[in-house]
Amino acid sequence: MTWLAAVSTGVTPESTQHAIGYPTLFVLVLLGALVPVVPTGALVSSAAVVAFHQTAPFALALVFVTASAAAFLGDMTLYWLGRRGMGSKNGSRWLEAIRSRAPEDRLTQAQGKLAGHGVAVLVLSRLVPAGRIPVMLACLMAEWPMRRFARGNLPACLAWSVTYQLIGILGGSLFSEPWQGVVAAVALTVVISVAPSVWKRVRRPAEQS
Q1: Whole-angstrom Cα distance, residue 21 to residue 77?
Q2: 59-87 vs 22-34: helix crossing angle, rounded to 10
Q3: Closest CA to 63 of 23, 15, 34
Q4: pTM above 0.70?
Q5: Is residue 92 left, alpha or beta, with left meaning phi > 0 and alpha meaning psi from -120 to 50?
Q6: Dihedral of CA 43/103/101/150: which sign?
Q7: Is 177 helix (H, G, I), strand (E, B) or coil?
Q8: In angstroms, rounded to a whole number, what is the distance separating the alpha carbons of residues 59 and 67?
Q9: What pLDDT, in 10s, does the model give residues 100-117?
């Protein structure tokens, strides 16, 4: 990928990144929205680090637009596939994939919050690690139409993109070399992702004792 090449060589081929880097970011974030195993937050933060060190105007704005659009399109596609599965007698593999990533306790919690707060829960779900899929499944089970889901999902994707870009900008501003900022940004996104699960494991023995 162009960003990795730029980081490893210390050279930023900006014209090449415009031709390859942004489409690559778009495809990877889109894939990550459909198959939630790709670390899309880390990708956006890394892209923001490289854009922060560029001289090209609007580099950060292009990262924001690319990541937001890809996340929105991926979410809407996955929701559409989920709705088709809900309406099918035999379901679908996409619906089954969504269900498999939404534990019963988190789904119940998401349904309760969705009933009480509506679209606001959908907006926040993308900012909470592992929060997107349970809330999406809750929306499917509540039979939200595509238009209603889109109204909440658009600001959710915009807020998500801004948040991870800010992480990347913070990493890029702390170090003079882009690769150092990328390492810092990736490390920070990993910590943010695993912190809730670690906290739950720490709290569980304390509550049982």
Answers
A1: 23
A2: 30
A3: 23
A4: yes
A5: beta
A6: negative
A7: coil
A8: 12
A9: 888 888 889 889 988 888
